[in-house]
Amino acid sequence: MTSEKRRKFLLPVVVAAIVFLGLLPSRVQIWLPDSWLGNAYVDELLKTQVLGLAAPLLVVLSALLAGRLTAQRYLTLGDRDADIEPMPRIGLTLDLSYDWKKMGTALSQILTSFTAIVAYFGIIRGNVIALHNVGLVPWIFVFAALTALTQELVIRYGLVTSLVGLVPDSWIHWTSAGVSAILAVFLTKAGLAGFLLGGIYGYFMAKAVLETRGLYWAWFLRFWQQVILYGALFAIYL
């Protein structure tokens, strides 16, 4: 069986891993009832992160079995200065000097700012901000880094390695956008704004992985988004 045919069996694995991540927060206390940390909220998040690592491990191993060359090609940081393919349908026409280093930096600033606005109106507004337990704040960056790694390996890496070369790249962009939008609703509870912002993130992160042949910019964009979201959640739940 050729690698192209084997990769068709990878997509169900990716879908199962995505569903697992979506259901995990509501199941973690059932699967791991014992307390690990003194703070119940941080304890639950830590358990979620640890159990969640099973999903990217399964996806990466499955991708390597389905098509080693394709799997290895995208399992890197990639070319952070790679050229950007213009997208005239949405008005993105760039000169030849505009690469992913400039685009990634600009996107991180713009999308992180929008995330902060969505986090305020969708999570923080109307709630009392807790200022105690500040010693737990470093966990924000730990959880953001792990969440970004887990989600990008499962969603972006999983979708790209299972679909690249089999469907047009634009299909991968939009599939990634749809998955991220739906997960944003379930995981952040930020409503329509979270849905739209998740879709935008998903679209550009898939584009980044395909064009740079690596995960650096996808992880970087997701990391700063998660820092904002976890910061908002910590502000009201700690």
Question: How would you sum up this structure, described in words?
Answer:
By secondary structure, this protein is mainly alpha-helical. 74% of the residues lie in helices and 0% in strands. The protein has 10 helices and no strands. The termini are far apart. 40% of the residues are buried. The mean pLDDT is 84.
Write the layout of secondary structure elements.
Blueprint: H1 3-7, H2 10-31, H3 40-52, H4 54-66, H5 68-74, H6 100-124, H7 138-163, H8 169-188, H9 191-212, H10 216-237
Task: Describe the structure concisely for a colleague.
The protein has 238 residues and is mostly helical. 74% of the residues lie in helices and 0% in strands. It starts with a helix and ends with a helix.
